[in-house]
Write a structure and sequence with these properties.
This protein has no helices and ten strands.
Length: about 110
């Protein structure tokens, strides 16, 4: 059974940081590119970032470039998203997903507010 469980969300002030994690199981994690998507209240799902299976290639949406860093640990089947210089417009539910199959798990809520 494929499981993707995001965690690490919470309330943070503008300019602050959060580190999201995603625990993956039920598939060969190291063989797939992985990604983070997000969905802000009342808005469509938005792609945020992706990382290659080996972790050597990263890509980012323009809206988060230079502020967010994606990483993975294939030995631990985990995916991370380091989010710095957070802005109120980063408020959303963040989902980790398998970029190859499109499968996403349950998300974690990030709220950026003073």
């Amino acid at each position: 059974d494929v499981q993707l469980q995001a965690s690490g969300g919470g309330l943070v002030q503008p300019g602050g940081s959060l580190r999201l994690s995603c625990a993956a199981s039920g598939f060969n994690f190291s063989r797939y590119s992985m990604k983070w998507d997000r969905q802000a209240p009342g808005k469509a799902l938005e792609w945020v970032s992706a990382i290659s299976s080996g972790g050597n290639k990263e890509s980012y949406a323009d809206s988060v470039m230079g502020r967010f860093t994606i990483s993975r640990d294939n030995a631990k089947n985990t995916l991370h998203l380091q989010m710095d210089s957070l802005k109120p417009e980063d408020t959303a539910v963040y989902y980790c997903g398998n970029a190859g199959t499109g499968r996403r798990g349950k998300g974690t809520l990030v709220t950026v507010s003073s």
